[in-house]
Amino acid sequence: MENTIEKGTGENRLGVMPVGKLLTVMSVPAVFSMLIQALYNIVDSIFVSHYSEKALTAVSLAFPMQLLMISFAVGTSIGICSVISRRLGEKREDEANLTAETGYSLELIFMVMFVLIGAFLSKPFVSIYTKDPKLSEMTVSYIRICLMLSFGNFVNIFCEKSLQATGDTIHPMMIQASGAIFNIIFDPILIFGYFGFPQLGVVGAAIATVSGQFFAMFLGLFFLKRNKYLKIRLLRPRMGKKEAKDILTVGIPSIIMQGIGTIMTSAMNAILIVYDVLAATVFGVYFKLQSFVFMPILGLNAGLLPILGYNYGAKNKPRMMKALKLAAIFAVIFMSLCSFVFIMFPDALLGLFNASDSMKKIGEVALRTIAIMFPISAVCITLTALFQAMGDGIYSMIISIIRQLLLLIPSAWILGKLFGLDAIWYSFLIAEVIAFSLSLVFLRKELKKLNF
Known about the structure:
Elements: H1 13-16, H2 19-51, H3 53-89, H4 93-120, H5 122-127, H6 133-148, H7 151-165, H8 170-192, H9 202-226, H10 241-275, H11 277-313, H12 317-344, H13 346-351, H14 357-370, H15 374-389, H16 393-419, H17 421-424, H18 426-449
Helix pairs in contact: 2-3, 2-8, 2-11, 3-4, 3-6, 3-7, 3-10, 3-11, 4-6, 4-7, 4-10, 6-9, 7-8, 7-9, 8-9, 10-11, 10-16, 11-12, 11-14, 11-15, 12-14, 12-15, 15-16, 15-18, 16-18
């Protein structure tokens, strides 16, 4: 078991380890696991693209529904992580345990909701975008498998975030990496029918995905059972009203913030597909590539959140500010490098997905334009950890609503009408600059709260 006690002090390292070292220890495993997850996301689409271009389009059209499910699982778990880390910082261990059990119960409730969505709403959702019977069948199959077998997804994410809240970063890394590696291995086997397995195409990709989630879930439950800070009952979990309220105070804005991505991607698909069906495919590919850029920053935030939450509970402002500044500096440097790669080598990135010349023509303009905003996004993403750690996830939600719904979608539609397809991609830059300005306004409000 990873040792989360700082030697010589008997205290949780979140409160006493030197901040630079602590941020590294907390974030590097999370960044590593996120990179593996991002690699899986890209490899998954690469395998699907080599099966057929239509299969790649099906996965792209299914992505908004899959993203919605993940937003509920991750958003709720962010609330769980925030509250547990604060309770541990306040030395209220019993309430931390009750928070974990309550959060587990909430995750199961949301899981049942998505089983029903997968069963009854998959076909109506897909019918919005295509009347092609083959494309529709592939997309519906992918959505139903991922949603109706989502138990592993909800539970393994719960285990990851609960462990991170205690200062454990190695085991969450192992949980996420195990599921991603499982997927990477079985994706080609089930898609193309190797080693005696039937050739299942998109269905095989979905089965590999949920199988990896279940594998990660069993490993997560094993590690959570051995954690010394949390003693929870998962067979008969308790549900605390106050704990549920505290979790959802942070979790609901996080769910909405991430769930807005579903609305945004659905709307952007609808806007883009009018100009060219390949434009929607390019948008899906961009999201896969984007995950490789943003996942490490999200991993950094996963390590930063419990540091900020614990020290906010312990009323230690200097440690909070130092951790936030270090994280922001790293995020900007990393995202600037990624921006350079996207701008200089878009052809090579699109080539990974077996892109046709027509797809590359659209995609090169898209990647070069969108990548301009990466460094700005780095600061916005880092600040979300501060808002969530202090229980003010509502700020992150407001920023996401304004960025993705009130700015991105309308500006994309207007730019497309006025100047054509290539201009649509500039809507990302417009939305990000205004969201960045709003983030700084909310940061000033939070800094005033830190005058303990």
